[in-house]
Design goal:
It contains 25 helices and no strands. The chain is an all-alpha fold. Helix 12 runs antiparallel to helix 13 and helix 19 packs parallel to helix 21.
């Protein structure tokens, strides 16, 4: 099973030269805080109180102030890294965790968090390099490290090594939540639904506010066709952590699919409040603008995203959809082909590419694009219909009729296809 849930908040963020601009605004406050006579431990306690109260912006400033006053305070650096990671700034978190690992006499926890942050940037090769030969002694750290290694290997497409790393994680700590959730994800890919449901239910029975488990359950419900219930579960995840960027991004996409524009807009506002600079936020703004037929704004946002993430398949796909909607099939084809070159298994992109190629009169290209879908035991009706039109335009009437009959059979509720079949 492949479930695309929109732009992953763990994808690479903006370049360091852009991301670094986020720290210019509180610079003066940090300088004032550093001049305070208060001891670093008290400052750290205040930072944690800010974070507990939900004031992450003040907590961020205070953690920075603590480290300016006491650069070697590892627990402050770890807290800052965790906060950055929670806000979606995996690159910034990785810097802090790397420093903490170098400064700590017991670096296992910092190293594990460093590895997790690198995985969340999407730099799986770097993560494997960091983790493959590292053998911590603490079983919980082993479980954390191997769980992240499983994510990295899975991201690199090596299922066997992902399974092996996951087995090591569960051997070290059979109850480790991240490992159990990762196993459920791998089981979902194999269609082991009984095991998947049991694992997710067990995780939520232990902790009803497990945001990652709630989000995965929402994805499962959507995959099974129950988007309303999926939104309800995602809302529970958001209630557990109102600043969870992946949850907000998922809710934006789901609500837009349901044409709940106002609700989606509120979630976009939430993303901007948490991390307005983050690529997932920029993408959500583009999606919202497209839903409102504001093509100029949608195009501007997605082009901004592509300027820093040129190979991101979600951004390329959205760019293609925008160009197709404004009547620019040539540009749409370019974007769709770029997306498929990164992720050849994206069925919906393959369909949209073939549709745009057909509009350009590239009928043979459209048929070649659709071939992997037409070879399936049960090809999508839309793929069969587009292929039928391409064959018709090429003068292959018998093939066109056969494909149209199959499309009508695959979608008996589609009145347009049924009418075309009769004609």
């Amino acid at each position: 099973m492949v479930m695309k849930v929109g732009f992953r908040c763990s994808d690479r963020g903006l370049p360091r030269r852009v991301a670094s601009l986020r720290w210019l605004a509180p610079a003066a406050l940090l300088m004032l805080a550093a001049c305070s006579s208060e001891d670093p431990k008290s400052m750290l306690d205040r930072a944690r109180e800010f974070e507990r109260s939900g004031d992450r912006a003040s907590a961020l400033v205070q953690y920075k102030a603590v480290l300016q006053a006491s650069p070697g305070l590892v627990e402050a650096r770890l807290s800052l890294g965790r906060l950055l990671l929670a806000q979606g700034d995996a690159e910034g978190a990785a810097v802090e965790f790397q420093r903490a690992a170098a400064e700590s006499p017991s670096p296992d926890v910092a190293y594990a968090l460093w590895a997790e942050s690198v995985v969340r940037t999407g730099d799986f090769k770097r993560a494997v390099h960091l983790l493959a030969s590292w053998k911590p002694s603490d079983p919980k750290v082993v479980a954390a490290v191997q769980s992240q290694l499983a994510v990295a290997w899975s991201g690199l497409g090596d299922a066997a090594k992902a399974e092996a790393a996951l087995a090591e994680a569960l051997k070290a700590d059979p109850q480790f939540p991240q490992a159990r959730l990762m196993k459920a994800r791998l089981d979902a890919g194999k269609g082991r639904w009984t095991e998947v449901d049991a694992a997710v239910d067990a995780l939520l029975a232990e902790n009803a506010q497990n945001v990652d488990a709630l989000l995965f359950k929402a994805e499962l419900l959507e995959f099974r066709g129950d988007r309303k219930q999926a939104i309800a579960v995602a809302d529970k995840a958001l209630a557990a952590d109102k600043a969870a960027l992946p949850v907000l991004a998922t809710l934006v996409r789901m609500r837009l699919d349901e044409r709940e524009i106002d609700a989606a807009s509120r979630h976009v506002d939430g993303m901007k409040a948490v991390a307005g600079w983050h690529p997932a936020t920029v993408l959500a703004e583009a999606q919202l603008a497209l839903s409102r037929d504001d093509f100029a704004k949608a195009r501007e946002r997605v082009q901004r995203l592509l300027s820093v993430l040129p190979d991101n398949e979600t951004a390329q796909t959205l760019a293609g959809v925008i160009e197709a909607r404004v009547g620019s099939p040539v540009q749409a084809v370019t974007h769709f082909r770029r997306a498929l070159s990164t992720q050849p298994g994206l069925e919906s992109v393959r369909v949209e590419l073939a549709r745009s190629e057909t509009r350009l009169g590239q009928y043979a290209d459209a048929l070649a694009t659709l071939q992997p879908l037409l070879a399936l035991d049960q090809p999508p009706a839309v793929a069969l219909a587009i292929a039928s039109e391409a064959q018709l335009r090429l003068g292959n009437l018998k093939q066109a009729d056969s494909l149209l009959q199959r499309a009508a059979a695959a979608a008996p509720g589609n009145s347009q296809l049924q009418t075309s079949r009769l004609v």
